[in-house]
Amino acid sequence: MIRVKRRASGFLRDFQEFALKGNVVDLAIAVIIGTAFGRIITSFVEDVIMPLINPLVGLTGKDWKTITVGPGIAIGHFLGSIVDFLIIALILFMAIRALQRFKRQEATDDSPSDPSLVVQERLIGALDNLTNTLESRNNQVL
């Protein structure tokens, strides 16, 4: 009986550690936001894009949602799902591309330089300044 309680408390402790890790919480938030985003895109397709396409498809005298081929093959609903997918894929592509550009820019800006190179550049700059100062003094004396 004691072993069962220890195992159960160990299991619950392990599950609590897993469930409260940042990755799991972040994943849950991403799923919730993704679901809401999917609903927005579906509404956009059904309420904005497809009514614009409906006159083209409406030549058959039907609404785009009700177009079927054969017994129960809903082409209209499938077409709406394809447009949903294409819009979401385009938005994800643009977001990932922007993130990659940002990371590349960040990598070039924050590239750690070799300390010896920094010292050499400072010494060369100091020597150039000293040379310019000495030349200007020699020109004033002459």
Q: List the uncertain runs.
A: none
Number of structural units classed as domains: 2
Indicate the proportion of strand residues. under 5%
Strand order of the largest sheet: 1-2
- What Rg do the Cα atoms give? 33 Å
Overall geometric form: flat
Average per-residue pLDDT, rounded, comes to: 79
CATH class of the largest domain: Mainly Alpha
CATH homologous superfamily heading of the largest domain: Large-conductance mechanosensitive channel, MscL, domain 1
Bin the helical content: over 70%
Q: Please summarize the sheet with the most strands.
A: 2 strands, antiparallel
According to CATH, what is the topology of the largest domain? Non-ribosomal Peptide Synthetase Peptidyl Carrier Protein, Chain A
Characterization of the model:
This protein is mostly helical. The protein has two domains: 2-111, Non-ribosomal Peptide Synthetase Peptidyl Carrier Protein, Chain A; 116-142. The chain has helices spanning 2-19, 22-57, 75-109, 115-141; strands at 68-69, 73-74. Strands 1-2 form a two-stranded antiparallel sheet. A hairpin with a 3-residue loop joins β1 and β2. The longest helix has 36 residues, at 22-57. The protein is flat. The model has no long low-confidence stretch (mean pLDDT 79).
Give me the secondary-structure topology.
Layout: H1 2-19, H2 22-57, E1 68-69, E2 73-74, H3 75-109, H4 115-141
Antiparallel strand pairs: 1-2
Labels describing this entry:
142 residues; mainly alpha; Non-ribosomal Peptide Synthetase Peptidyl Carrier Protein, Chain A; 2 domains; flat
